[in-house]
Amino acid sequence: MSKPNGSVTHARFQDTNRLALTRIESVLAHWLPGGKVQKREYVVKNPARDDQNAGSFSVNLDTGQWYDFASGDKGGDLVALVAYLERCPAQADALHLLEGFLGTAPIESSPPHKKAKAAPPDPWQPVAPIPADALSGIPKRHLKHGDPWKRWEYRNAQGELLMVIDRFNLPLQPGEEKPRKVFAPLTLWQHTGTGDTKWQRKGLPAPRPLLNVDQLAKHPSAPVVVCEGEKSADAAGALLPDYIATCWPNGTNSVSKADFTPLKGRDVLLWPDNDEGGVVCMQRLAEELQTLGAKTVRLVALDCFSQAPVWHDNTPAFAEGGEWLEKDDAADLLARDWTPAHLSALAAEGALFKEPPALPASPAPAAKPAPAKRDARKKAQQTPGFTVTDTGLYAVPEDGEPRRVCERLDIIAQTRDERGQNWGLLVEFCDPDGITKRWNIPAEALISEGAKDAISPLLSMGLKLDAKRPARNTKNDLISYLQGYAGSARARLVDRMGWHGDAYLLPMGAIGETLEALEFTNHGAELPSIEEAGTLEEWQTHIGALCPGNDRLALSVCVAFAGPLLHLLGLESGGFHLYGESSGGKTTHLQAAVSVYGSPKLVRSWRSTDNALESIASAHSDGLLALDEIGMCSPRIIGETVYMLGNGAGKARANDRGNGKPVRRWRLLFLSTGEKTLEQHMDEANQMHRAGMDIRMLGVPADAGAGMGLFQELHGFDNAADLSDSLKASVNKYYGTPLVKFLEALTTPDNMRTIIKAFPKTLQAFEKETLPKDASGQAHRAAARFALVALAGEYATEWGATGWPAYTAWNAAKACFSAWLTERGGAGSQEEAKVLDALCHLIETHGEARFSRLNVDYQHDTHAPRTVNKLGYRRTETLGSGAECRTITTYYIGSASWTKEVWSRAGLPSARQANKVLKAHNVLQLDHEGKTSIKVPGIKGGSPRYYVFTDEALYRAQNAANDEEATKAA
C-alpha cells in the first residue's frame, strides 16, 4: 500500500477528519453503502465481519465516532474507520486513502533524488499451517464473550490446522427481538524479528481457505455443497450425506477473498440463504466456479422448502403449510424435522436443484441461440482413432487404411439431466431423405448386450451402416466410436418445454440466454407441435385484426400470451372455460388461441385419461393448453382433473420396485370449451362441486350478448358464420410467429424486470375498476388471472406481436370478467350463497313432509299425520294481530341428520362450513356458550342437541345477501 506524501502530522490528521466530517455522507456511502440514519447515527451492517442484520454497527454523523456493539471494535474518527474497514496496518495508510477520496492529498515536494522513506512492513505475520507444538496454547475462551457456542476448524488438504472460527451467541438485550451472534476468527501470528508468537482474533489474509478442505482431499469424487456459513454447512452435510459440505469465512461480504480452487473439476451444489443477498451472491459464485473449471454447478431450488415434511407409511411426503422464512438456511430445515430422506424425495422429483441463471451481460435483446441452427454440427471429431467427413464416419487405425463405418454421424455433446444424472451422448445425422435427425443415446445403453439398445434406434431412424463390410465389424466400430468420445461439449437434457433459467425452450431451439445447450427429451410425452407458418404480418392481418371489438376472441389470444408469464411472476396454474349451447365458434376460438403457438393440431380433447393429461400438461408447461368440449370428459373425474391442472402436479406413483417415480409438474394456463359449465357437468353424475374448482377454471359465457354468438364485431363480414369460417381457414395457414416475436422481447433482462414490476400495479388498477371493496377472496383470485391476461396482451401489443390498438386486451379482459361476475352472482363468497339457498330449498321442498309437527308445549302433535323419513321437527307460532299478524315456523334438526343428510349432498359445503355461514348471518339460534346446536328440553327422545332456526330469519338472511350482491354488481 502506498504511503501519504509529505510529513504525517497530528495537524494533518485533524484537517482531514474535519474535511471528511463536512462530506460524511459521501464518505459513508463509499465505504459503508446501504445504511440508514437513526437520530444522527448512521446504522449499517459491518462488512468486516459476518453481520446479518443492521443495528450493532453505527457511525455518529456529527463526530465521526463509530462503535460495533457486537464485537467491541470502536474508533474516534473517520480515519480510524477507514483503517478498520480497509484493514490498514497503519493509520497513515488510511489517511492516504481518505485524502485520495477527498482530493486533498499533498503533492510530493521533495527533490527528485530524495526518495520517501518506506514505512517498515508489519513485523507480525500469520503462521499457517499452525505447528503442532503451538496447538496446546490455543485460547479456549474469548476475553469479552466467554466460551464459544461452537468452534470450527479450517484445515488444509493435509489436515493441518490453519485457523479456527468461534461463534458466540450474545444475551438478549432490551429492545432486541432475538439474540445477536458474533463470529471471531482465531489465528497464530509470529514476529519476524524476535520470533515471538501470539494468538490474535483476526482472520487470515486473502485468499482464505474453505471449510473441510481436508475432507475434500480425502474424497476427490464426492459432490460438494457450498453454504454461506459454518452452521448452515453442518446442517447441509447432515441433510445431504453424500456431499462434502463447505463454506468460506465471514459470509457474503468476503466471498471474493476465498480460495475456491479446491472445487475445480468437481460437481458443486450452491445452497444460498433464503434472502436476496444470499441468492445474488451464490449466482455470482456459480459464474466464478464455471470459469474456474468446476465440472457442474447447480443451485438449490429454495421454493421447494415452503412445504411441510411429513411421513406416510414410513415414506417421506410433503404437506401444505410449511415454514420457510426470509434468511432461513439449512440449519432451520434441520430444526423443522426435515431429513435426508425428504431431500432425496425432492431430488427424485426433480424439484431440489435448478440451473444457475445466466447473468445479463448487456441490455441488448436476446436472439435465438445457435442450438436451433443444426448446421453448427460439422466440427472436429473428438473420438481418438476416428474421423468424420461429409462422406461418412471412418475408423482410422495407426497401421492401416481407414475403414468406413456408416454415414456421417456427429457426436454433439455429452448429456445429463437437471439433476446431473442419466448421462448419455447426443448424436446427429441425416436419414436417406436428407432429414436431420437428433437422438440422445443413454450411457447405459452402450453396455447392453451388443449395445443393441444404442444401435437399434439409430438404424430405425435411418442411419445407414457401410454395406461393403460385415455388419458385426461395422457395429463394433460404431460402438467403439461412441464409447470413446472424449469431447468436453455438454448439453442439458430437459423433459419439458418452457423456461430454463432465463431462456425459453421451444422445439426449434431456445430463445434467450443459456449457460449451455438445452435438449428436449420427452420420456414418452408427445412434443407439442409448436411451429411457424406464414409471416407475423400475415397472422396479424388474417387473425389478429379480427380480435379488436370481439372480447372472447381477444381474451383467448391473450391467454396464449399469458402462459409464459406465470413463471416470471410466480403465479399458479389456472384456466378459462368458454361455455354455451350455441355452436357459434367456441372451437374456432381455441384454434385462434393456439395459432399464437402453432397449428390447430395443438388443440387437445378433454377425452383423455388423467394419466394422459398429466403427460400432455407437462409437455405444455409455461405455455397454453387448449382442451375442446368438456362434455367428452367423464363427470366422475372432471373435478379432480381440474384440480390437477390448476395445482400444477400429477399423482405420486411407484415403480415396479415400490420406489417413487418423479412427479410430473407444470405451470400453464388452459383454455377449455363446452356446452355446459363445470358445475352442470358434474351435477349430471351427482358429483360434489366446490367453489375452488370454479376458481381454478373460470367460466366465461360464450354468448357475448350482441346477437352473434361469441362475436360482437363482424369486421366487414356479412355474418358471424362467415367470420368464423375465415378464422378457421386462416389458423391453418398462419401460426407460430406471434409467440416467437413475444418471447424474443420477453427474454431480454430489461423486459423481464418490467413485467415483474408492472403486474402488481396492473392488478391494483384492474381490481379498482372491476371489484367492490368488500369482494371475496375468490373474486380477487379470479381478478388476478384476468389482470394477468390483460397485462400479457398489452405488452404483446407494445412489443409488436398483435398489431392491436392499445387497451384492446385490457377492455376484453374487463368485459369477460364482468360476464364471469354476473353469471357467478356477484363478487361475494359462493359458499355463503350455496348455504343459504340450500337451506331455503330444503324447507320449501320438505318443510311439511319430513318435519313432525310440535304443539305449543313442544310435544308431538298426535293429530298430525305420521311423518315418513323424518328429518326433524317444526313448530308454528302466530304473532301479532290484524295487519301485524305473522306466522313463524321454527325448525329443529338433530345433529346426526344435520351432518349426514342436510350437508352431505354432492356440491354442498360441509356442515362445519355451513354452521359458520349461518352463525354469521344470525340464522341459527345459539346456546349461552355460543354453540350452533342447542338443547331443547321439551322434545322427548331423539337427539340431545338440535340445530334450530326460523323461516323468518333464514329468508331475511337470504334476501339481505341477494340485495348485497345486487348492490355490488351495480
Can you put this structure into words, describing what you see?
The protein is of the alpha/beta class and 970 residues long. 33% of the residues lie in helices and 18% in strands. The strands form 9 sheets. It has a 5-stranded antiparallel sheet, covered by helices on one side. Strands 6, 7, 8, 9 and 10 form a 5-stranded antiparallel sheet that branches. The chain is globular and about 115 Å long.
Structural class from helices and strands?
Answer: alpha/beta
Low-confidence segments, ≥5 residues, pLDDT <50? 107-119, 359-380
C-alpha Rg (nearest Å): 36 Å
Helix content: 25-40%
Average predicted local confidence, pLDDT: 84
Sum up the overall morphology in one term: globular
- Strand residue content: 15-25%
The tally of beta strands, per DSSP, is 37
Main beta sheet strand tally, sense and closure: 5 strands, antiparallel
Fold topology:
Blueprint: H1 10-22, H2 24-31, E1 36-38, E2 41-44, E3 57-60, E4 66-68, E5 74-75, H3 78-86, H4 91-102, E6 124-126, E7 150-155, E8 161-169, E9 181-191, E10 197-200, H5 213-218, E11 224-226, H6 230-239, E12 244-246, E13 267-270, H7 276-292, E14 296-300, E15 308-312, E16 315-319, H8 330-335, H9 340-349, E17 353-354, E18 386-389, E19 392-395, E20 403-406, E21 410-416, E22 424-430, E23 436-442, H10 452-461, H11 471-483, E24 490-494, E25 498-500, E26 503-506, E27 509-512, E28 517-520, H12 536-542, H13 551-562, H14 565-569, E29 574-579, H15 586-594, E30 603-605, H16 610-619, E31 624-628, H17 638-647, E32 669-674, H18 678-683, H19 691-696, E33 697-701, H20 720-731, H21 737-746, H22 749-770, H23 777-798, H24 808-824, H25 830-846, E34 851-853, E35 872-879, E36 886-894, H26 895-902, H27 911-920, E37 946-950, H28 951-969
Parallel strand pairs: 11-12, 11-13, 13-14, 21-24, 24-28, 29-32, 29-33, 30-31, 31-32, 34-35
Antiparallel strand pairs: 1-2, 2-3, 3-4, 4-5, 6-9, 7-8, 8-9, 9-10, 14-17, 15-16, 18-19, 19-20, 21-22, 22-23, 25-26, 26-27, 35-36, 36-37
Helix pairs in contact: 1-4, 3-4, 13-15, 13-23, 13-24, 22-23, 23-24, 25-27, 25-28
